[in-house]
Recover the amino acids of this structure.
């Protein structure tokens, strides 16, 4: 298994191109199954999760073609992929494929809407809590689907099509909003989703569906209205920038000091995060093409953070922020409200010398004078990158084991950080 070796050294300086968002690319690739015509996605990141989803889509009969290099593009430009779901030949998503990544469960939406049936294994994915699927089942049943569970599979049927309805999510869910929006696009009549997720990736999916001929309004608000149409057509769409990747690098440079330009990302995607970083000591400058994050000399101040659905502080940046606060001048409280078991990075950060105590969903982080390099274990996608952030300022060498977690969600991480002066290398096995 590959390892990443980080040697703590000076500040980061340079430009980092921000990739297309994993969490937008995945639902977009699933939504393309709603149409017989082609969907061309630009700015698709090179990630293990994207490759896993391609394997799942292939199993349903989807073809794809990756465009080669073009003039003016670099290895860090996202890929353009042409997808075609002209014919769906299999409506089952088997355990071997779905268990690798939770989001692949979302194929249930388009399969059910277009084919009238879906048999999808209950999902796997990051071990960050129980992550149930009740909201998917409830909301699809509200559209008239007949749903049962047997032997670890969900069977969903709607032989006469889905019917528009008014549905209120009892809890905000990104994935369930994606799926209900996809399914309702081809339902008969109008669907109103209340308490919908506001995340930029939901807006990105809705924008793409509209480009495919869907009639969706209210994107980015908690009430989304979808007038069902008979068919969707082909389209071309550019995947929105990855606010979690951008937030991660913003935290890295806030940790090390220096000045990094995050190219291709806009502040409205993660304003709460930028505000928090300013509070702890970063300077932020925004222009049309991206965001400059700088910290020169100033000590890091502590800050309390509570994760919330968008536009609140994202749970996907909680671990990275905790890493940052391990070096703050004082004590910070970090409260996780989205997932119940998302503190696995705490014991690994402690191996580097961090002072963190846990009480239920609240972590209290007392800043220390210095961290020390050690062997650590990547436990989930975002937790693993928090270890890299800590390692960038730790004394000596840190080895991060099990980096396949990082490859699921961070495109060219070592390359991007090395170009800004970090000492980070991958040791291939
Ligand atoms: C998505 C993101 C993930 C992010 C999360 C929250 C992708 C591919 N993943 O995950 O990176 O951390 O949003 O921003 O976009 N829940 C239920 N029942 C359900 C579904 C969800 O109780 O049927 C709960 C979950 O356990 C969790 C909360 O709702 O406590 C929010 O989860 P959700 O927004 O659904 O996360 P995902 O879509 O899986």
């Amino acid at each position: 298994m590959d390892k990443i070796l980080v040697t703590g050294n000076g500040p980061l300086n340079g430009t980092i191109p921000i990739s297309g968002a994993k969490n937008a690319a995945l639902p977009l690739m699933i939504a393309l199954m709603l149409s017989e015509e082609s969907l061309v996605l630009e700015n698709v990141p090179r990630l293990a999760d994207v490759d896993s989803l391609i394997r799942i889509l292939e199993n349903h009969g989807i073809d794809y073609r990756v465009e080669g290099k073009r003039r003016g593009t670099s290895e860090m430009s996202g890929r353009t992929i042409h997808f075609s779901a002209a014919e769906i030949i299999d409506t089952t998503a088997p355990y071997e494929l779905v268990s690798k990544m939770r989001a692949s469960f979302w194929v249930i939406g388009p399969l059910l809407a277009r084919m009238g049936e879906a048999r999808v294994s209950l999902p796997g994915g990051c071990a960050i809590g129980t992550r149930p699927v009740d909201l998917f089942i409830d909301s699809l049943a509200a559209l008239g689907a007949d749903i049962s569970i047997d032997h670890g599979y969900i069977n969903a049927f709607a032989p006469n099509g889905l019917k528009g309805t008014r549905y209120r999510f009892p809890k905000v869910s990104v994935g369930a909003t994606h799926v209900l929006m996809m399914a309702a696009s081809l339902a008969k009549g109008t669907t109103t989703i209340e308490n919908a997720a506001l995340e930029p990736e939901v807006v990105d999916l809705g924008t793409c569906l509209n480009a495919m001929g869907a009639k969706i309004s209210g994107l980015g608000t908690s009430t989304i209205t979808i007038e069902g149409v008979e068919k969707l057509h082909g389209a071309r769409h550019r995947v929105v920038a990855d606010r979690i990747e951008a937030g991660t690098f913003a935290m890295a440079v806030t940790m090390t000091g220096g000045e990094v330009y995050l190219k291709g990302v806009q502040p409205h995607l993660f304003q709460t995060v930028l505000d928090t970083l300013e509070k702890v000591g970063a300077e932020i400058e925004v222009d049309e093409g991206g965001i400059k994050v700088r910290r020169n000399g100033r000590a890091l101040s502590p800050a309390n953070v509570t994760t919330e659905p968008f536009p609140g502080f994202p749970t996907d940046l909680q671990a990275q922020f905790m890493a940052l606060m391990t070096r703050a001048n004082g004590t910070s409280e970090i409260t996780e409200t989205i997932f119940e078991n998302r503190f696995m990075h705490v014991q690994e950060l402690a191996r580097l010398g961090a002072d963190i105590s846990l009480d239920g969903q609240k972590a209290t982080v007392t800043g220390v004078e210095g961290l020390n390099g050690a062997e650590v274990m990547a436990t989930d996608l975002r937790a693993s990158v928090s270890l890299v952030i800590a390692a960038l300022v730790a004394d000596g060498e840190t080895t991060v084991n099990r980096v396949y977690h990082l490859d699921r969600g961070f495109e060219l991480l070592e390359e991007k950080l090395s170009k800004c002066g970090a000492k980070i290398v991958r040791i291939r096995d």
Summary: Residues 23, 26, 102-103, 129, 131-136, 171, 173-176, 201, 315-316, 338-339 surround uridine-diphosphate-N-acetylglucosamine (CB under 6 Å). The two ends are 5 Å apart (CA to CA). The mean pLDDT is 94.
